[in-house]
Amino acid sequence: MKYALNNGAQINFQIKRQIDEEREEKYTNLYTVNKLFPDENPVSALRKELLTLTVENYMQTVKDLRFPKRCEMREFGKVYNGDEDVYIKIRVELLGQFGRATTFIMSFHYAEKAFTPDMFPYRKN
Description:
The protein is an alpha+beta fold and 125 residues long. The protein has three helices and five strands.
């Protein structure tokens, strides 16, 4: 992911998602990005944030059940402002449109359930 982002990968961010219509506003992508990065371009802020992720932020890899032929998705968790858990789900497609890598950010929102240490298989104690 970092290689793709550092080499001009396009970012597609789902700022408004159909699933968010059923969700409490605090747990939507739009709300979270506006709260965490109020004075920044959302795509620029997310590019910067994705570059800070480490293996210790990694939670799991999941298959896309809606599009089973697409690449798997990676789930990460990061804490902001000391105690605000943010759930991040991305897909990186290295051979995107016209040969450009593309990073799809499906989720970047406050976590509905607090993170626990067992959710992070590579986190050091």
